[in-house]
Amino acid sequence: MSRPPLPPFTRETALEKVRLAEDGWNSRDATKVSLAYSLDTSWRNRAEFLHGREEAEAFLQRKWAKELDYRLIKELWAFEGNRIAVRYAYEYHDDSGNWFRAYGNENWEFDDDGLMRRRHASINEQPIREADREFLWSLGRRPDDHPGLSSFGF
Prior knowledge:
single chain; about 150 residues; about 25% helix
């Protein structure tokens, strides 16, 4: 299976890859999102280590069952060859109605077919008041005219 754009990345194709990843995660469809990862993908997400697409899919299912009304913005930080670095922020609430904003950085490595084989994520989050939310679009894909991450100064 091929998942364009393929490495080596140009600025244009790296930006496209980042937006496709953002769109996928904003769908909150763990099965669909997991198809962007190689069968032998290796993840570090905070202090959790995952191996293989099935573990990644199970992780995403758990994540979005707990992180409700999840909205994410990713931004390209750097790229070279088959690697991309992004920074991102997302907002969600728990089942008690408490809101959070998480900030993070990810390093991605892709195989020749454009599937992510390595994902290293470092994430911090803080409680926020619902009135302090910034990501207010309807659930799903962030509209093209919605400000990007740098617009918020995060």
